[in-house]
Design brief:
144 residues; mainly alpha; 7 helices; 0% strand
């Protein structure tokens, strides 16, 4: 479909008129805007730091929850416990490093997992569980 300069001009004119008309408003909505401007937004929970005791409690509780969840699906929990415990400890420690006050409150007090905790869990699991590089065979470095 070919656009002509005249068609482009009318489309632009139409958009301009829509923008100008949307800028007009009645007196009632402007008073609503001033009322909304007077109400301050509270950022105290977002700005607050997580205490060391909350971080330790989170790490301990999250590690226990992780171990329980993994051993629940295990066919041999006795032999898997050491491996799972080590992995869950690494994940909990990794997540604890950048834990926010909101995430700590949701997990510790409301017993819920925030979406950000799920993302952090996946990142920590990748970091802690990635396989180490296999050893390179010696014949690749030997000179012929």
């Amino acid at each position: 479909m070919k656009t002509t300069p005249l068609k482009t001009f009318f489309v632009g004119l139409g958009l301009t008129s829509v923008l100008l008309m949307s800028g007009c408003s009645d007196e009632k909505s402007s008073t609503d805007n001033t009322a909304a401007q007077k109400t301050p937004i509270s950022h105290t929970l977002l700005d607050s730091k997580v205490t060391a005791s909350d971080k330790q409690k989170f790490e301990h509780d999250f590690e226990n929850q992780c171990v329980d969840r993994e051993l629940k699906n295990s066919t041999n929990p006795d032999s898997d416990k050491a491996r799972v415990s080590k992995a869950c400890s690494c994940i909990a420690t990794f997540m604890m490093k950048d834990l926010t006050a909101v995430e700590a409150e949701k997990f510790l007090q409301e017993h819920e997992n925030a979406q950000s905790l799920t993302i952090k869990y996946e990142n920590a699991a990748y970091h802690c569980l990635q396989q180490k590089a296999p050893p390179t065979p010696a014949h690749l470095f030997s000179k012929p």
